[in-house]
């Protein structure tokens, strides 16, 4: 086997890259763009995305080639010694005021008479909410192993979307899809960071393996992964709202900017999901949304936990909290006024068939978190001691959010999922699905579901990846897909087997395949992919934050969540999964904002700040978890509710709106001094 | 890969002989600071390295009535395994907060003091405690204050061609101990620093006042410490604000620390020390 | 250079270069794949080994420093009844560390329980600080360690009785 190290661009932007390599030691070789067919891996993305850059360098650290050899350390050194030249160009780093050439995707929609409603409004509030770049903290750095077995290409890679990986390799390497076998490997927690980037690494390994005739392994070091692979996109969401004298929303004028870095083939999805979630759970008669994916000469940036929706929830929830401040009302009061009611819908989604259980969520959340008392007392402290010089710097906030089985937008391949289940004579069940690469918590839930339906032992249920990805095609595995769509398919196949059991002898098999139901168009036909709220799980989250008045470090003290997610199949698994996600979501709020210009491995390690001993109290309560009916997803809920709650709690503690997350200790002290 | 020559000296005499032949040889004890500062697959080392962790002479611990003396290769776990009464406050808790157990099992007191890039956690405490270090070189040995490990440019100054062989810590407990670790990381990083203040209070007077702030660079203003030592704990607030302002000004003149947390810490420490 | 070292009870003469980390030497020369060189900074814990009885991050140890030492890796301790207790506790509490950090977490807990048979919460947190993979529920992990201690003590106690 050969190891491969990546030759990277030292330039942010340039044309016609030339790579100079001194004579390599015996057994070592180099592969550059010129050695490969000139097909783009993702031809649908603007100018395409190359396997190795050559004509156009788009970010510092972009892959220009590989050094192959028997020793990984020596490969690293030889790759670092490569000389790179190019016609350097001025990098485009600015993205909040962007040029038209930087727009990778634009979506706009309008609903109702916006201008009229603004005129009718008694209060206007305009704010911009900014989110930083965060690393996904995968369990293992990015990598791929590729080898040829006669005419068949085998690729082992930790990808959330093996089906797409196979299609991309076929296109880029001019191979038949039938000649490529993708073996998705264990991933641990991905937070949607492995949707598409592994395809680039896998294509590089595959190309190198094809040329060298040997198995090739690429495995990034953690530093390399941190500095050069995709992260959560930076976003700036501007919300201008008009509301009546009670605080009822009349108009929302929203501009969503998502900085996708050098490229991201899922830019339309990010924009689409953010736009579809931006109105949150609120009803408003007039809405205008302009949403852009903006390119800049920095590392590729993309999804984090809920493919774009996190940015949207963060902005709208923070805005609703700010609106409450403007009206000197409790945020809960303002939210209750504006919440969607039965029959109403967000942009183009079908109307809700039942009321959102907001009242109950709110009531319970306020009770368990002691929110009204704490909120009032922190407000008093702030009035008495605006600079917080006496030491108590605390805030508390609540936010609302939901998780649906998000449907994707344009590509039909993104919405197909399949499951095949076989029950053998020994009452052992084998479930074949590409979703078998999902989390252990999901597998536990699926196991319980199948065991319950078929009355078999959980230990007798196994998950297996299909031998070949095209036997069971699948869209990407994300948390919401796993916990809603696959869950549904497993239930369906098991019920089908159970039905047949009384008529036919074992072994029995059943297959189920689905395309996620697309939301019907709104009367205006504006937004066919809007969220399917009837399948949503609902969540209210309260976060209490303290700021260390000496160092400015924000410390989450406690998190309370009240969740209505239908039937909870395994309480222990659900709680464990939510607590782990809560920790990750809080880490996003307290981590260092990734700065591509100066980041180093220290920043990656600093993100592990929120150690177990700093863990806040986490209280989770489910509403009617034993009721009959469908189980719904919960894994994304901490990501869509905690950042906004944390930010709003910080706003209360500071007595002013910091307008961005995350905030470093130094910045917080500066804000405290100024308040 | 550039290869290094690695030696395994058995005693200090062999180390000194190696130093005589090559004053630039790297003496590697636990190695956690040197290896941990490199994120690449292979470790980059100088031409010659001596692995000294197993040299018994450098792992001995002696306790007298006046001081605790430790060989430089004593690991943090080794220090923590001493009877709690053997360790002057707050060393035990400071060492327990360094890294994690795996790291403390290899990191040594000598390595912590000899980091060339920055001051690690122990230096400010040992500096306040007036600890001494022994240097041995082919030409002889000498004891010096830990403070000598800080150069005139306020950066770490590790004597060349010699080995820091022992650390001697006075067994003297302070009445007032205040310290805060700053920065976004629990581990040494570009924005981390340690703020330490120790003093005694006798007959309503502040005595033996020491204040050290260290990170990439280190600061201790001995003349200021002397002027504060002897002040009454009931010193008027205005005068205390004056101390804060003087410290702030002095440190600002050096232009090295973010004044915001620093000012907050100074106000806090003086607020606590003076009633 | 050749490093003489005893790994998992077997004396070995392993090939290494001065810049190699111990984790890489053990993986490359002995195919001890429970070890993974990940953060290379002694934080993630995926390279934990026992070196002369003390748990260390083998990414922080130059391979040459292993000379004349005794190394134990997860492959050796996995057969231990203590590890079975830990795995059982994981199962009962439904604590599911990801495949990347599972052995590391077991090593850290094994080390803890062999030093402190009845650990308090602070001891547990100190042990788990060695493995910083964010995959599992922290409270579940603490429960699992407490249960593992209970199972271990029960097993030892019954045997002695």
Could you characterize what this model shows?
The complex is a heterotrimer of chains A (675), B (275) and C (161). Helix content of chain A is 31%, strand content 26%. With 675 residues, chain A is α/β, with parallel strands linked by helices. Chain A folds into 3 domains: 2-91 and 142-219, 2-Layer Sandwich (Aldehyde Oxidoreductase, domain 4), CATH 3.30.365.10; 231-407 and 528-674, Aldehyde Oxidoreductase, domain 4 (2-Layer Sandwich), CATH 3.30.365.10; 412-515, Aldehyde Oxidoreductase, domain 4 (2-Layer Sandwich), CATH 3.30.365. Chain A has a 7-stranded mixed β-sheet. In chain A, strands 7-16-15-14-8-26 form a 6-stranded mixed β-sheet, sandwiched between helices. A 4-stranded mixed β-sheet of chain A has the order 18-23-24-25, with helices on both faces. In chain A, helix 6 packs parallel to helix 7. The longest helix of chain A is centred in the last third of the chain and has 23 residues, at 479-501. With 275 residues, chain B is α+β, with helices and mostly antiparallel strands. Chain B has a 5-stranded antiparallel β-sheet with strand order 4-5-8-6-7. A 4-stranded antiparallel β-sheet of chain B has the order 9-10-11-12, sandwiched between helices. In chain B, helix 9 runs antiparallel to helix 10. With 161 residues, chain C is an alpha+beta fold. Chain C folds into 2 domains: 2-77, Ubiquitin-like (UB roll); 81-160, DNA polymerase, domain 1, CATH 1.10.150.120. Chain C has helices at 22-30, 74-77, 81-92, 102-115, 121-128, 138-160; strands at 2-7, 10-15, 48-51, 54-57, 70-72. A 5-stranded mixed β-sheet of chain C has the order 2-1-5-3-4, with helices on both faces. In chain C, strand 1 and strand 2 form a beta hairpin. The longest helix of chain C has 23 residues, at 138-160. The chains are: A alpha/beta (675), B alpha+beta (275), C alpha+beta (161). Chains in contact: A-B, A-C, B-C. The B-C interface holds B 1-6, 8, 28, 31-32, 35-36, 38-45, 49, 51, 53-54, 77, 96, 99-103, 105-106, 187 and C 1, 17-21, 24, 37, 39-43, 45, 48, 51, 54-57, 59-62, 64-65, 67-68, 111, 126-127, 129-130. Chain B: One of its GO terms (molecular function) is FAD binding. Chain B: This is FAD-binding PCMH-type domain-containing protein. Chain B: InterPro entries: Diverse_Substr_Oxidored, FAD-bd_PCMH, FAD-bd_PCMH-like_sf, FAD-bd_PCMH_sub2, Mopterin_DH_FAD-bd. Chain B: Residues 1-174 form the FAD-binding PCMH-type domain.
């Amino acid at each position: 086997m050969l190891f491969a190290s990546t030759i990277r661009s030292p330039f942010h932007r340039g044309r016609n890259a030339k790579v100079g390599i001194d004579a390599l030691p015996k057994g070592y070789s180099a592969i550059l763009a010129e050695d490969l067919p000139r097909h783009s891996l993702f031809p649908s993305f603007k100018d395409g995305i190359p396997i190795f850059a050559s004509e156009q360098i788009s970010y510092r650290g972009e892959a220009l080639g590989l050094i192959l050899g028997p020793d990984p350390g020596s490969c690293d050194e030889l790759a670092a010694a490569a000389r790179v030249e190019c016609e350097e160009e001025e990098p485009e780093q600015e993205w909040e005021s962007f040029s038209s050439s930087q727009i990778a995707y634009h979506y706009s929609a309008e609903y109702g008479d916006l201008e009229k409603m603004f005129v009718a409004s008694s209060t206007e509030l305009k704010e911009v909410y900014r989110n930083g770049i965060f690393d996904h903290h995968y369990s293992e750095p990015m990598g791929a192993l590729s080898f040829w077995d006669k005419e068949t290409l085998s690729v082992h890679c930790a990808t959330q979307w093996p089906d797409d990986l196979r299609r991309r390799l076929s296109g880029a390497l001019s191979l038949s899809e039938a000649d490529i076998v993708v073996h998705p490997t264990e991933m641990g927690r991905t937070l949607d960071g492995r949707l598409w980037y592994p395809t680039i690494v896998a294509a590089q390994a595959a190309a190198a393996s094809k040329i060298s005739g040997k198995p090739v392994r690429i495995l990034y070091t953690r530093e390399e992964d941190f500095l050069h692979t995709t992260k959560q996109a930076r976003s700036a969401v501007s919300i201008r709202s008009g509301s009546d004298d009670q605080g009822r929303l009349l108009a929302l004028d929203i501009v969503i900017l998502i900085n996708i870095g050098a490229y991201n083939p899922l830019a339309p999805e990010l924009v689409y999901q953010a736009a579809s979630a931006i109105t949150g759970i609120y009803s408003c008669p007039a809405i205008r949304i302009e949403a852009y994916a903006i390119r800049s000469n920095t590392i590729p940036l993309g999804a984090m936990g809920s493919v774009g929706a996190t940015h949207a929830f963060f902005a709208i929830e923070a805005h609703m909290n700010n609106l409450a401040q403007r009206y000197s009302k409790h945020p809960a009061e303002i939210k209750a006024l504006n919440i969607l009611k039965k029959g109403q819908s967000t942009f183009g989604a079908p109307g809700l068939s039942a009321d959102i259980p907001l009242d109950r969520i709110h009531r319970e959340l306020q009770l368990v978190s002691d929110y009204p008392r704490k909120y009032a007392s922190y407000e008093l402290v702030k009035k008495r001691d605006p600079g917080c010089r006496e030491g108590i710097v605390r805030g508390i906030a609540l936010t609302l959010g939901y998780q649906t089985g998000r449907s994707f937008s344009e590509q039909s391949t993104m919405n197909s999922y399949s499951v095949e289940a076989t029950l053998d004579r020994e009452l052992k069940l084998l479930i074949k699905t590409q979703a078998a690469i999902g989390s252990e918590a999901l597998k536990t839930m699926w196991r319980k579901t199948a065991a319950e339906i078929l009355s078999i032992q959980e230990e007798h249920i196994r998950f297996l990846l299909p031998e070949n990805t095209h036997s069971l095609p699948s869209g990407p595995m994300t948390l919401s897909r796993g916990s809603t769509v696959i869950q549904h398919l497993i239930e369906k196949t098991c019920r089908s087997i159970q039905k047949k059991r009384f008529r036919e002898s074992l072994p029995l098999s059943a297959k189920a395949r689905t395309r996620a139901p697309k939301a019907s168009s709104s009367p205006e036909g504006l937004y066919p992919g809007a969220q399917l709220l009837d399948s949503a799980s609902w969540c209210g989250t309260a976060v209490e934050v303290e700021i260390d008045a000496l160092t400015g470090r924000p410390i989450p003290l406690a998190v309370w969540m009240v969740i209505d997610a239908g039937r909870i199949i395994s309480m222990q698994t659900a709680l464990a999964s939510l607590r782990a996600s809560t920790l990750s979501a809080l880490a996003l709020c307290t981590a260092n904002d990734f700065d591509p210009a100066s980041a180093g491995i220290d920043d990656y390690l600093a993100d592990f700040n929120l150690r177990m001993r700093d863990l806040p109290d986490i209280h989770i309560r489910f509403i009617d978890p034993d009721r009959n009916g469908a189980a719904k997803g919960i894994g994304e809920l901490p990501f869509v509710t905690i950042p906004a709650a944390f930010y709003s709690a910080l706003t209360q503690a500071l007595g002013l709106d910091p307008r961005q997350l995350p905030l470093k200790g130094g910045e917080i002290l500066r804000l405290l001094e100024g308040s | 890969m550039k290869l290094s020559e690695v030696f395994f000296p058995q005693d200090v005499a062999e180390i000194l002989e190696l130093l005589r032949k090559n004053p630039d040889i790297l003496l590697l004890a636990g190695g956690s600071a040197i290896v941990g500062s490199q994120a690449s697959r292979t470790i980059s080392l100088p031409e010659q390295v001596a692995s000294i962790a197993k040299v018994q002479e450098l792992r001995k611990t002696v306790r007298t009535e006046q001081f605790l003396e430790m060989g430089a290769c004593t690991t943090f776990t080794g220090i923590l395994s001493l009877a709690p009464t053997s360790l002057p406050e707050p060393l035990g808790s400071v060492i327990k907060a360094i890294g994690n157990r795996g790291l403390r099992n290899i990191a040594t007191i000598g390595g912590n003091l000899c980091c060339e890039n920055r001051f690690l956690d122990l230096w400010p405490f040992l500096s306040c405690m007036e600890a001494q270090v022994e240097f041995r070189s082919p030409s002889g040995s000498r004891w010096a204050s830990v403070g000598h490990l800080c150069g005139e440019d306020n950066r770490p100054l590790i004597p060349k061609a010699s080995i820091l062989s022992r650390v001697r810590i006075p067994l003297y407990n302070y009445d007032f101990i205040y310290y805060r670790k700053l920065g976004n990381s629990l581990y040494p990083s570009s924005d981390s620093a340690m703020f330490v203040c120790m003093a005694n209070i006798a007959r309503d007077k502040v005595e033996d006042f020491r204040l050290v702030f260290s990170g990439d660079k280190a600061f201790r203003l001995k003349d200021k410490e002397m002027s504060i030592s002897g002040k009454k704990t009931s010193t008027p607030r205005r005068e205390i604000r004056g101390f804060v302002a003087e410290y702030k000004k002095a440190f600002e003149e050096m232009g090295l620390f973010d004044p915001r947390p620093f000012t907050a810490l100074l106000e806090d420490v003086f607020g606590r020390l003076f009633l | 250079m050749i490093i003489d070292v005893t790994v998992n009870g077997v004396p070995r003469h392993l090939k290494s270069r001065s810049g190699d980390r111990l984790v890489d030497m053990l993986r490359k020369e002995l195919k001890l794949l429970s070890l993974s060189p990940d953060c290379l900074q002694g934080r993630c814990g995926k390279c934990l080994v026992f070196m002369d009885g003390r748990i260390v991050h083998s990414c922080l140890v130059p391979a040459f420093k292993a000379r004349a030492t005794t190394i134990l890796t997860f492959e050796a301790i996995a057969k231990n009844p203590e590890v079975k207790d830990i795995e059982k506790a994981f199962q009962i509490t439904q604590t599911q560390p990801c495949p990347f950090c599972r052995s590391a977490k077991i090593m850290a807990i094994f080390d803890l329980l062999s030093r402190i048979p009845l650990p308090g919460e602070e001891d547990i947190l100190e042990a788990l600080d060695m493995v910083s993979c964010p995959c599992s529920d922290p409270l579940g992990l603490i429960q699992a360690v407490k249960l593992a201690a209970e199972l271990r003590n029960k097993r030892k106690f019954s045997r002695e009785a």
